[in-house]
Design brief:
The chain is an alpha+beta fold. It is about 45% helix and about 10% strand. A five-stranded antiparallel β-sheet has the order 4-5-14-9-12, with no helix packed on it. Strands 6, 8, 10, 11 and 13 form a five-stranded antiparallel β-sheet that branches. Strands 1-18-19 form a three-stranded mixed β-sheet. The protein starts with about 25 loop residues before the first helix and ends with a helix.
Length: about 950
């Protein structure tokens, strides 16, 4: 999803000048009413009417000319909202072009093209709905001690919140049509009007139900199932598909937008796979009698009787190990009995026999295993190779390849999906073993949390393929590298029992397990009896763990399915699927009267998962003592808080945009070769975690001269300001692991580095894969850090002037574009930030073609990124308010409403004397919204 955000402009400035000649209809009407009051005893005549028109035109011409002259004064740009001519904005356009425009006015319109020094003297404004209402509405519509004017009492309307959408729609129309404030009052500025209308639209779009109940997000469902079943998402994650119908960039949920047929279908598929993988009524706890074999794999290994030789490296292809379960007669009898019982009168077709046989051969049940074998690295001395038969080039190749210490060759072992039978599994490396010369016994221990397969391969990516070795030999023996010569060499030199080149030989392979089997809380051991009572107990435990009132309907569903001749295990899992697809599970409500339900609501807000027993204990203790401090500390120090911040930062910075517009591989190879997508996420989540755990001031979000980085990111940020181009020396692994435990705090001497605004996560998300989008960055800063939302752009924007400067720097292009008066009103706020943020390219490196000129924001001169960070950091209260809003949108799982305003004000007030520290802000959020 990479919708380029158009340049934000405002056409309302254009309306300030009347194209019909500057005659203002409102002035004419006022003059008419004055004339009527003075001369009631006379009948109006055509002569008097003409005089009034002339006088009205004269009265209107003066204010228009003054407005045009004053609009070109740099020092008065900031007070545009108080300029009298803006009263004519809404009506001037109505007197359309039938009248010929006077020449002087047309000349003055040209002069409104902002001078160079004015263009980049920007404004920073902070508008809030509550502030505008208090300043512009309450004085007439509900101020204490005064008579309420007009149709409604605004104080009562505010108190009603979202319960009175009809009245809010009336207010919206009055403001949109320019009827409020009345003519004798100062009109609303365009910014004030946009804030009011946008907030009222949100009010009328959401009912009170949305404030009480919401649907779980995909992230919350993923966390819950992972916690309940102890899923290791690094190797298995069936929940990724849920996000295809739900955007990571959205903070809040609206049930009618989320619960769609497509989403429910994906949810069903994900749940079905997770439940089948982790819930079983037949958990094997006794050790298996398992035979194991390393089979021949074409182009990788060769079977040599009772031994297997690992000879070549062939990309990411692996050798899957085969197992043969030699069941005891007693086990086989039990299995046969259960199979006959479950398949009685079964009408549907049986399982895919071929797939079942494949799974049985390649997979092991959950548990811990010890794989043992005898290993020997052979032919490790290239000087002993037959030079006459194979040639000097082969000898030289292996001399350069093989380790000089004679230690041996590495073998990597993995947990892998069994063929194509497991779509949601990922490869997980278990260990790497160096097999030395001379026979030795080796053991690989691993644990499977679910049924899985095991595989191995040569651990040296530089090791040759069979075709490469055959080509070198063919070139020497047959004086040819044609296909026939290579195939001949493959048959004569590669596929032979006595291999002449370096290889690893395995023999005496065995496996023990499963050992120390941990039975999932919702499963039964293989030798336990399956009864209706046991199933009822399982569902009771599931309800308690999920903090949902017990409902016997699910054990009833199990009984009915079993009676319909469905397999007992399948009946149980189907009933469990019904639980996870029920409204009880998929929604949360904030009714404080229901203690269990409310604890669940708060847990999903602050942990994004179901409430654990420890959480409930801490939460209830904080409620009784009316003290959130201990709960806040417990949450920040809990492992789930890291997960909380990972998803919060991903959504807040809109990092999904990186996937939609990934930096071009041929130009920005560093991003791909060093896996900066994962590294950027790790950096920003650990940076936020540091701010909270150390209780740092919120201004450090932008003013920090440090970040939490690995060596790759540190080198990238410090190497000449950050080189985006690929200059990696040596061979790069196909799948680059960022090693999360290597990220450490690093302080930068360059002021262009450190903090949120210099992070690759923010800068890459605000690029398009080719160029850094400085205007998008500027808009994000205004709306997400400085609480200064911009009005929506017009439907059509003329970019002719901007695009005509295609070879110029951004400042020159913006200067040309903003000559249009309709663009200037917004760009005077956007451009200064954009010019400075143009320092960075699309992935966070330094953009060399940026402007070096200083800009002005209000009265502050900003020379570079360091100055910009300090200026934004100086707006501590604004930063605290804006960050609190973003945090609330994420924790509450919804957008903010009018009723939230006073609580947000209280949070800011409580932290004003405390220095607006991050953990203190979270503590105030918990105190005011959840206790």
């Amino acid at each position: 999803m990479n919708k380029k955000r158009p340049l934000r402009t405002n056409v309302k400035l254009k309306k300030a000048v009347d194209k019909s000649g500057g005659i203002d209809k409102r002035s004419i009407n006022k003059a008419k009413r004055a004339s009527t009051r003075k001369k009631k005893q006379f009948n109006p005549t055509p002569l008097i009417f003409a005089a009034i028109v002339i006088i009205g035109g004269g009265l209107a011409y003066g204010p228009i000319m003054r407005f045009i002259e004053e609009s070109n004064r740099p020092e008065e740009v900031k007070v545009v909202k108080k300029e009298a001519p803006k009263k004519k904005k809404e009506v001037v356009k109505k007197e359309v072009v039938k009248k010929e425009a006077p020449k002087p006015v047309v000349q003055e319109i040209k002069e409104i093209e902002a001078p160079k020094e004015v263009l980049f003297t920007g404004e920073l404004k902070h508008y809030t709905f509550a502030g505008i209402v208090n300043d512009r509405c309450i004085s007439c519509h509900g101020q204490e001690g005064k008579e309420v004017e007009g149709k409604f009492d605004f104080v009562k309307v505010l108190a009603s919140g979202t319960t009175n959408p009809k009245l809010w729609r009336i207010i919206h129309d009055e403001i949109a049509e320019g009827n409020m404030p009345p003519e004798d009052e100062e009109p609303l500025s365009s910014e004030e009007k946009e804030v009011l209308l946008a907030e009222i639209k949100k009010i009328t779009a959401n009912t009170i139900t949305a404030n009480k109940t919401r649907a779980l997000t995909p992230n919350e469902i993923e966390n819950t199932l992972s916690d309940l079943f102890q899923v290791d998402k690094s190797i298995y994650n069936p929940f990724g598909k849920l996000y295809s119908n739900y955007s990571h960039t959205d903070f809040y949920t609206v049930q009618e937008n989320i619960i769609t047929p497509y989403y429910l279908n994906d949810l069903y598929t994900s749940l079905e796979d997770a439940v089948k993988s982790y819930v079983s009524l037949r958990i094997r706890t006794k050790p298996l009698n398992v035979g194991v074999k390393f089979p021949t794999q074409t182009h990788r290994s060769f079977n040599n009787g009772s031994m297997t030789d690992l000879r070549w490296y062939h990309g990411d292809l692996m050798n899957e190990i085969h197992f043969n379960n030699h069941e005891s007669k007693e086990d086989a009898k039990k299995k046969s009995s259960r199979s006959k019982k479950s398949n009685r009168n079964e009408k549907s077709e049986g399982p895919d026999t071929e797939t079942e046989e494949l799974l049985a051969k390649l997979t092991l049940p959950a548990g811990t295993y010890k794989l043992s074998f005898t290993g020997e690295a052979q032919n490790m001395n290239p000087d002993k190779y037959n030079k006459k038969k194979y040639g000097q080039s082969v000898i030289d190749y292996y001399k350069n390849l093989l380790p000089k210490d004679g230690y041996g060759l590495p073998v990597d072992f993995f947990i892998v999906p069994p063929g194509k039978a497991d779509a949601y599994s990922k490869v997980q490396q278990i260990t790497s073993i160096k097999v030395s010369e001379g026979k030795e016994r080796y053991t690989v221990q691993f644990t499977l949390n679910r049924k899985g397969a095991i595989a191995y391969r040569m651990g040296m990516k530089q090791f040759p393929t069979d075709t490469k070795v055959a080509a070198m030999v063919a070139s020497h023996r047959f004086k040819s590298t044609e296909r026939k010569a290579i195939e001949k060499s493959l048959a004569q030199d590669m596929r032979i029992p006595k291999y002449p080149f370096a290889q690893i030989r395995f023999s005496d392979i065995s496996i023990k397990g499963p050992l120390n089997v941990k039975v999932n809380g919702y499963s039964l051991k293989d030798d336990e009896r399956l009864t209706d009572r046991a199933i009822r107990e399982k569902f009771k435990n599931l309800h308690e763990d999920a903090a949902i009132k017990n409902n016997t309907v699910y054990s009833y569903i199990f009984s009915k399915l079993k009676q319909s001749k469905m397999d007992e295990e399948e009946s149980y899992r189907t009933a469990m699927m019904s639980f996870f697809l029920s409204p009880d599970f998929l929604t949360v409500g904030n009714d404080k009267k229901d203690k269990q339900a409310y604890a669940r609501y708060v847990s999903y807000a602050l942990h994004k998962s179901h409430p654990s027993p420890d959480f409930i204990t801490q939460f209830e203790s904080a409620q009784r003592a009316k003290s959130p401090e201990k709960l806040t500390d417990w949450i920040v120090n809990h492992s789930n808080f890291r997960r909380f911040l990972e998803n919060f930062s991903y959504q807040w910075l809109e990092m999904e945009e990186i996937l939609a517009a990934t930096p071009e591989a041929d130009k920005f190879g560093t991003f791909h070769k060093k896996n900066f997508f994962d590294a950027y996420q790790e950096e920003i989540s650990k940076f936020l975690l540091h701010l909270f755990t150390q209780n740092r001031p919120i201004k450090e979000l932008v003013t920090a001269d440090y970040s939490i980085v690995n060596d790759d990111l540190r080198d990238f940020y410090e190497n000449g300001g950050g080189n985006s181009y690929f200059r990696y020396q040596g061979t790069v692994p196909e799948k680059y692991d960022i090693q999360k435990d290597t990220f450490k705090k690093h302080t930068f001497s360059d002021k262009r580095r450190g903090g949120l605004l210099s992070s690759g996560a923010f800068l890459t998300a605000t690029g398009n894969g080719v160029d850094g989008l400085a205007i998008k960055r500027s808009t994000w800063i205004l709306e997400n850090l400085l609480d200064s939302p911009l009005p929506p752009p017009p439907d059509e924007i003329d970019l002719t002037n901007f695009e005509s400067k295609h070879s110029e720097d951004l400042k020159t292009k913006l200067e040309a574009h903003s000559k249009d008066p309709s663009c200037y009103n917004c760009h005077k706020r956007i451009d200064p930030f954009a010019i400075i943020m143009d320092y960075y390219d699309t992935m966070g490196g330094i953009h060399q073609n940026h402007s070096r000129d200083a800009v002005m924001i209000n009265t502050h001169k900003i020379k570079n990124v360091g100055d910009l960070k300090e200026y934004i950091g100086s707006q501590e209260e604004v930063l605290a308010r804006s960050f609190t809003k973003q945090l609330l949108r994420y924790t509450l799982g919804r957008d903010l409403y009018i009723q939230d305003g006073p609580k947000i004000d209280k949070i800011v007030e409580e932290n004003r004397d405390k220095g607006f520290k991050t953990r203190e802000l979270l503590n105030s959020v918990i105190k005011n919204f959840f206790l």
